[in-house]
Amino acid sequence: MDFNDTPDEAAFRSEVSQWLMQNAPEFTITADTKEQEFVAKAKAWQAKKAEAGYAGIRLPKDVGGRAGSEMESILFDTEEGKYELPLGPVVGIGQSMAIPVIRKHGTEDQLKRFAEPTLKGDITWCQLFSEPAAGSDLAGLRTKAVKDGDEWVVNGQKVWSSWAHHADWGILLARTDPTVAKHKGLTFFLIDMKSPGIDIRPIRQISGESDFNETFMTDVRIPDKYRIGEVGEGWACAMTVLTSERLSSAELKESESVDYLIELAAQTPGDRGTALDNDCVRERLAYWYSLEQGQKNFHLRMLTKLSQGSGPGAEASLLKLVYAQRLQQSAGFGMEIQGLSGLATSPSDHAAEEMQKTYIWSTAMRVAGGADEVLLNQIAERVLGMPGEMRGDKNIPFNELA
Ligand SMILES: Cc1cc2nc3c(=O)[nH]c(=O)nc-3n(C[C@H](O)[C@H](O)[C@H](O)COP(=O)(O)OP(=O)(O)OC[C@H]3O[C@@H](n4cnc5c(N)ncnc54)[C@H](O)[C@@H]3O)c2cc1C
Prior knowledge:
Bound molecules: flavin-adenine dinucleotide
Strand order of the largest sheet: 1-4-5-8
CATH topology of the largest domain: Butyryl-CoA Dehydrogenase, subunit A, domain 3
Number of helices: 12
Structural class: alpha+beta
CATH class of the largest domain: Mainly Alpha
Largest sheet: 4 strands, mixed
CATH architecture of the largest domain: Up-down Bundle
């Protein structure tokens, strides 16, 4: 395939693709891989990448990274995406959320303590932001942290904590000052998930699996050295995490790409030849293909901005919005063109099963990391400069809100 690579990029791609060919097959997973095995393999794959200098490609060498370029990181992800590897949140949260927030708001000691073990897969992370009454309105969260000497005492409940039941550490947003407006009274912490007082209760999903948890914290003590940023700087830290989460959500897996759907259409029998010979099918594929290309180019622009030191901020919302909507439509269509076998999949029909999984995942992605409507609000207000939503709680101390 012609990737339009520069000579340096082509050399790096070829080096990576050879390394993957030699090392990735041992770590690949299938639909039958059980959760414990998945986690073990995810950590082992992370360690393998770290050993070869491919974990944290953009991070400085002294924290275990490669000090490589944005483009090298993208090239690696693209080549890695060609294999069915255990890459989910169990290792992803550490890399796309914990390390960026520690790097931007934490101290050098904190980065040294956590970055390298995270890159090696020795430490896994979960995100403790959402609460039963604080999802879209995250700044309304009620989990509180009260200072007691050199420690903070945390009480409260989080929900939808993905993979918390396998996490060693969590990134936690808690209220430290209820007497100021809701965004201003928050502080960011790293919390050892094995601390006394943490109770993790898996939520059983319709699939029978439990990717999420409720996390209860009762008098959990966090040493002050695990506070990230200043007291009251929690909202800025959370924005760093959410921006990074939205940027990383635009990194497509091979099975999520429109190319995959085009191949599927070419293999699916249609009224005349294959489904790909149908003009209506071609028109819709062309539309999603153009959206995907736009998303990829916009993603590159955001990463370039980031590498030049200016955070993309609210613009990153556009990526997640376009990605999740397109994925839901195109994966739904992928199931549709396969007729009944798209719905009633069998383990022997890998393509149909993959498309169905992608469809279900895309539905969750329209909510995870910011629901569509909330992202639209952010784009309207903070990118396009349109008038803000009515906010009755603005500038009112949190403890005076009803
Ligand atoms: C797959 C997945 C993984 C997740 N993992 C984690 C995790 O690891 N850690 C974590 O902390 N959280 C996690 N979450 C939670 C996620 O961040 C929240 O679900 C999300 O922020 C939405 O919050 P909510 O579910 O409370 O919905 P609500 O905020 O109650 O929203 C319900 C509906 O109301 C709409 N709405 C809300 N406010 C407005 C408004 N101002 N204007 C217009 N419409 C509005 C929303 O768009 C949505 O359609 C995960 C969610 C999913 C789906």
